[in-house]
């Protein structure tokens, strides 16, 4: 991060938050280097664009997952929300609503479903993992009713804009990260961390815990649905089950990025880095000609390794 | 009034009453639902979920979660026909081998959680991904037919009219209830789930108990896999997938806290029956897959509001 001009306290805090991530940065760097050696095409604009387009939806859903995990929650409804976002984009954009209407519909859906899930979790005090599990069935059902078979239509120019030979996806990701940075500076953004780290303490300091939880679920829903919109633009159509792998991948990427399950632990930059690692890993294995099966095996091993090594190192440091 | 309150505070009993109510209403309003054969079939289906959820209950009680249950079920269902030696007429050698593999997978999960300090959710998730890959490498993705007599006996026979799977489930239930409520190791699991630090300081070994816990979870998932294979007569990649989420749902519907330390297997039993009944009722209503999925999700959510609430914190 380059805010060297800010106060010393800010710099110190940023350094401390980056410390645990150095290992991750190194691993990601090594994989990116390997990727560039194997496939020099990534260094051209077109290659870079394609690479970031493969990464973009995973980055979005990882942010959606990390947002909730930082608040002490978790969601198993990411994949279905991505599918629903894709389905809504593909069914509305061809109709009278047009592209702007379609985008609004996707955002409104993500916001509405997220807020409803958050309200159930926060106000009825049900465990998030099981509410979102039930929610995933409902959302999948809605997507299947709207579009029983893959189909629908996304205008060609939108596909070219988002998933063409220009790094628009990467720029969008930078914009979203900048927005997150600004959001974190607001009381509400700070409250997400605070309520995740110590709900009782935050409550006593005047943080409206319930409202914060609902907001974080709603924002998470928007991010996941937008991921679906992008996937629809990428493939040019909607598919009611296309999002399925994203649920577990979003959790894996967030945990790779050092986000803890108990809330308040971790950073969004770590999570985004984790999603980059997962994405590069899959790409590298693809180019090395691993059969899909071996990719699963390697992915399992690497995830455990990437989580276990820092945990062991921390223990070893503490024991010294 | 006091009695009503006591029932509301007792999630296992509440879930049992819910099952009884649903069965009564469905039996009176749907032709054929209340038939002995149909109810027996429901229990048979619930037995697979119940046995898979036995391990899950223990893991959740200790504050973890096992996302490899579905993968272990698939592994046992696919490996059993491959590993049953032809010279063994009883088929018990194959069963023992496969259960040992299931326990081994569980031990690996436990080792990752305790020695490598990987959070259980990520360790078991990575294990599931790993197994998924290994399975296709080993089995090549085609379905395998079971000829092992022991497994077929388990899945098909009906001593005294009761399916062998249900008998097995009753035995597992008795064992589980004794283990949780009458044995020191159950108390240790609960203590570690309620307050890991206090339990450790009181001399409860986290390492040992975590290993035993995940080994048990692997064992029960393996047992569920064998039963499922016997009932299905065929094993294929993905056969165990539906049982991951249903095993978690059965545990939570039974009132066991997902945060650990509080709950009992007595709740998981009606939880499993409730899930199977819900699915059966939805199948009766002739709806499209989308509507069926919506109904299932809504019903789980509704049941959850009745029996799965966390205490106010």
How do the helices and strands line up, and which of them pair or pack?
The complex is a heterodimer of chains A (320) and B (313).
Chain A: H1 8-19, H2 22-38, H3 45-70, H4 78-92, H5 98-124, H6 128-146, H7 156-163, H8 168-185, H9 187-197, H10 199-204, H11 209-235, H12 246-256, H13 268-287, H14 292-319
Helix pairs in contact in A: 2-13, 3-8, 3-11, 3-12, 3-13, 4-5, 4-6, 4-11, 4-12, 5-6, 5-11, 7-11, 8-9, 9-11, 12-13
Chain B: H1 2-8, H2 11-29, H3 36-61, H4 69-83, H5 92-114, H6 120-139, E1 144-145, H7 149-156, H8 164-182, H9 184-194, H10 196-201, H11 206-232, E2 234-235, H12 241-253, H13 265-284, H14 289-307
Helix pairs in contact in B: 2-13, 3-8, 3-9, 3-11, 3-12, 3-13, 4-5, 4-6, 4-11, 4-12, 5-6, 5-11, 7-11, 8-9, 9-11, 12-13, 13-14
Please explain how this structure is put together.
The complex is a heterodimer of chains A (320) and B (313). Chain A has a domain at 52-247. The longest helix of chain A has 28 residues, at 292-319. In chain A, helix 2 packs parallel to helix 13, helix 5 packs antiparallel against helix 6 and helix 7 packs across helix 11 (209-235). Chain A contains 14 helices and no strands. Chain A is mainly alpha-helical. Chain B is an all-alpha fold and 313 residues long. Chain B has one domain: Orthogonal Bundle (ABC transporter involved in vitamin B12 uptake, BtuC). Helix content of chain B is 74%, strand content 1%. A two-stranded antiparallel sheet of chain B has the order 1-2. In chain B, helix 4 (69-83) packs across helix 12 (241-253), helix 12 packs across helix 13 (265-284) and helix 13 (265-284) runs antiparallel to helix 14. The longest helix of chain B has 27 residues, at 206-232. The relative contact order of chain B is 0.19. The model of chain B has no long low-confidence stretch (mean pLDDT 83). At the A-B interface, helix 6, helix 12 and helix 14 of A face helix 6, helix 12 and helix 14 of B.
